[in-house]
What does this fold into?
Amino acid sequence: MANRLLLILLTIFISASSFATPVEQDLIKSASDAFQKAFPKDNGQEDYNEGENSLGDINNDGVTDFVTLLYTPNKDPNKAPNDIGDTQIAVFLGNKEGSFSLYKLSGSTFRHERIDQRVEIRKGSIFLYRRGGIPCCGEDVFQFKLRTKNIVLIGSEYSEFVDLDQNNGFGKSINFITGDVMYWGQTMKKRKEVKAKFKPPALIKIEDFSYPVGEPKGAEGYIDEKFNFVK
It folds into this structure.
């Protein structure tokens, strides 16, 4: 089993590193090694499969860090058909010699057979993307930032479209630091935005994060199909 997971990891990393420089290839290999060390297969307790990966600097120390998704299948024979297991965000901080150490592990991001998830380090932040749904297309985006040794949720965006061309839909963006929220609704010919303020709650640490995330008090509401703001 350990060799099978290592093969999955290396296959994904090699695919991502086809155009990587030698230094980047070393980092990708080190990330794979760190994952294996943090979640060994020989304990026989959980079957972790490595998902999407992203390299970047999240603590502004000039050293590359690493974030990935952990997949834990549900082995219960009585599970619901769409209950395919659990997903967590794993954050690894980089060391100067090029290795990585596990730093934080999130709560459940709710794995579902119709939802695609990926993580990305961009401009010093960690982003979790959740896309999918029926009848068409919905996406949740969560932004995390390292603040005083804690990785916290600082923003979220939600959007839902009723057509594949994404011309008709609605959504909202929430800033948990400033207490700003922006609601929007759009069609092919019209778009409406409503901005509001709410009292920022205590920031959620990534290890306490789980999906779904409840809306902060004062940020509830949406723009309906008639472009009315509903609180």
About this structure: The helical segments are 2-16, 22-38. The CA atoms of residues 78 and 84 lie 12 Å apart.
